[in-house]
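Protein folding task:
====================
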Amino acid sequence: MRYSAFKVFLQGLTGNKGWQPMWREPEPKAEYDVVIIGGGGHGLATAYYLAKEFGISNIAVVEKGWIGSGNVGRNTTIIRSNYMLPGNEPFYELSLRLWEGLEQEFNYNAMISQRSILNIYHSDAQRDQFVRRANAMLLAGADAEMADADQLRKELPFLDFDNSRFPIKGGMFQRRGGTVRHDAVAWGYARGADSHGVDIIQNCEVTGINIENGTCQGVQTSRGIIKAKKVAVCVAGLSGRVMSYAGMRLPIESHVLQAFVTEGLKPVIPGVITFGAGHFYVSQSDKGGLVFGGDIDGYNTYAQRGNLPVVEDVAESGMAIMPMIGRARLLRSWGGVMDMSMDGSPFIDKTHIDGLYFNGGWCYGGFKATPASGYCYAHLLAKDVPHSTATEFRLDRFRRGHLIDEKGQGAQPNLH
C-alpha cells in the first residue's frame, strides 16, 4: 500500500479499517542468498538497498526481538555530517544526502527535520579548530557556517553567553543537519525492504554461526538452522558476542549511553545545540520535550540502563550553557548499548572467513549513518569491494596503523 494524503482522508471516512500491515510475518526459509543478523536501522537499510539497488531479494533479516527494539529506537535522533577527516566526512555527507531524499524514496514519513546543528566554542583555540573542520567540510561538498557571539545572541538569546567559566564566543553551524523520528526510520526501511521481497523475521535469536573449512554456511537460530551464501552481521553493542560465534575477537568494547527527555515545553530550541566545553547535546522534539544526552557511563556492560553520576554530569553541562533547563522536569531516560571502537570510527568490511561480513563500531554515530551504512554495506555484499566512501573502514586498520581518530583521543574507546 502506498501512502498519500488522499488515502489518509479516505481511511478517516471509513474508520481506518483498510490499512494493511507494513511488512509480512514470514516463516524463515531453509536457505537465503544473504542472511542479515540484526533488524535495527543498519540491518534493515542494508536489506533495502541490496534489494532495490543491487537486485538481490532472497534475503532474511533476523532480529532477536522486535523491529525498533534496539538502538535505532533508543537514540537522540540527530543527523549531521560535520566531520573533518577524509576517511569520515565523505561517508557522512553521503548519508546526509540520502536522508534528504529518503521519505520520497520509500513513501514513508520519517519526520526528517533539517533544523540545523550548532557546535558552540568557548576559546580562540576551539574556534580555530572549528574553522579547520568547517573548511574540510566545504572541501568535501558539505555545508558549514561560522557564527560569532553577536550572531548567536540574536538567534539563541537564551544561551548563557557571559558564563565566567564557559563564555560562549561563537559556533559552527551545519544548517542541513537536524533530527529524524528514530522508530519511523526502522519502520520505513522495514516496509521498504519487505516490499522488495525481503523476509523480516522477528523474535529469531542467532545462537551460532556455521563455518566449514573456512567458509560461512549459515546461522543457527532459536527457530532452526538457516543456510546462507553470505552472512552479514550488524548488531551494534552485541557485536563482540555475535562475532565470538565465529571465533573472532573485535577491537570493540560495549558501553551504555544514556539519553533523556523532559516534559513537553513550548517551542524554544530551534535546532540541535552542542556544548563545546563538555559532552552535551540537545534538541526539542515535535511534542515539545527537550531530548538530550552526553557521555557514555564509562564501564563495559550489555545493560540498557545507566547510573546516576552521568545523569548529574549531563544535567550540569546543560545548565552551563542554558540555565533555564534547570526548571524543566525530567520525564524519562533510557540507555542504548554502544559498540565503541578503539579509534571512535566504524567498520564495514569482509572478515577472514569467506562469506562472513561485519558492520559495527559506530560508537555515538550509528543513527545518523544509517542510510550510508546500509548502502555501503549492501555494495560490499553485492560486489565484494568497498564503496568509495567506506574504503577506510577496515577491520585491519589497527594492525596497519591507519586509525581514523576523529576526536584525537587515541586508542581508548571510553574516551570516544
